[in-house]
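Retro notes, item 3 of 5
We never archived the inputs for the pyridoxal-5'-phosphate complex last cycle. Fixing that now. Sequence and ligand:
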Amino acid sequence: MSVARQIEAVRATLREGVSLVAVSKTHPVEAIEEAYAAGQRLFGESRPQELKAKYEALPKDIRWHMIGHLQTNKIKYIAPFVALIESVDSARLCEAIEREATKCDRTIDILLEIHVAQEETKTGWNYDELMSYVASGAFRALPHLRVRGVMGIASNTEDEIVIRRDFEALKAAFEALKPHFDTTFDTLSMGMSDDYPIAIACGSTSVRVGSLIFGERDYSK
Ligand SMILES: *Cc1c(COP(=O)(O)O)cnc(C)c1O
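Structure as it came back at the time:
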């Protein structure tokens, strides 16, 4: 099926108020143009240099989300234009984004990525560490960051009970953090191609869908 038809098909399954981030990492500019022609304006990428190159090549009304693990020395590639950094997973990264945002004279929207999956390898804050960081008032010293909510990735399993438990943990973390921020703390980013309907049932406000829209990724290219 074409990219445009896949986008329509995914959109038709979304509850009102849930945004669709089309995850275009590894896919060429032409594929993004096809999605753009179908009205898609929100895209997610994992690698800063690839994100920057696509930003430069494509229409400027696209809103780009950084969703992959971000090294502090690469923030500079995306800081001038990125719409949302979803994968903020450490105090060190918060402080480094603050510095880059200050240089560009921007306020950068971020999500706090929380580790809930069973796998050791997945990135994200440990919930308790994040809670104490937030409760310490650390974000008051980071005025160029606007914390919009929480992001997370469920365990890589077919077991729906485990997946649901992960999403419920993210939803609970979102609710627990919310009182520490203002009304712009409104985004709960969870759900990918294989599990986004469960994520929506658990309260997701933003799903990140890649392979279902663009097909399988080929990392060898
Ligand atoms: C690649 C990626 C996605 C999209 O995954 P699909 O399974 O292709 O939908 C979503 N979120 C993150 C953080 C990713 O890295």
